[in-house]
Amino acid sequence: MAYSLDFRQKVFAYKEKHQLTFEQVSQHFDVNKATLFRWQRKLESSYGNNRTAYKVDMDVLKQDVEDFPDDYQWERAKRLKVEQPTIHYALKRLKISIKKNTETP
Question: CB under 8 Å to 99, separation ≥6 — which residues?
């Protein structure tokens, strides 16, 4: 479970205000002591860290999607000389999902 940054800040503000130990704060907020020590080292969460793409140039992929809108991911992967899962995650970063046909045939 990931706790929000504002909750973490409130926990430490409460600890400082009432001059509590880590054991007391742990019992009060029902959070493990090890978690509190980890938060003390690094308050921001690293959960959901969005890494940058290094195998695929995003501008090239975006242009490829515009040029060939009906292609499968494996076809794009072959053109861009990468594997299909790389294309999948790159498209997710660009917030491009599968093509949806809104018109009836």
Answer: 69, 70
- Could you tell me if residue 72 is inside a domain? yes
Q: Model pTM greater than 0.85? A: no
| Contact criterion met (CB below 8 Å) for 54 and 40 | no
Position 83 scores a pLDDT of 95
Q: Is the dihedral of CA 65, 71, 72, 78 positive or negative?
A: negative
What total of structural domains would you count in the chain? 2
Residues in the chain: 105
Angle of helix 73-80 versus helix 84-93 axis, rounded to 10: 100
CA–CA dist 21, 14 (Å, integer):
11
103 located within any domain: no
Full residue range of the structural domain in which residue 88 is found: 58-93
pLDDT tens column, 44-84: 776 655 667 788 999 999 999 999 988 899 999 999 999 99
DSSP H or E stretch at residue 51 = none
- Which 8-state DSSP code applies to residue 19? T
Asked whether residue 50 is assigned to any structural domain, the reply reads: no
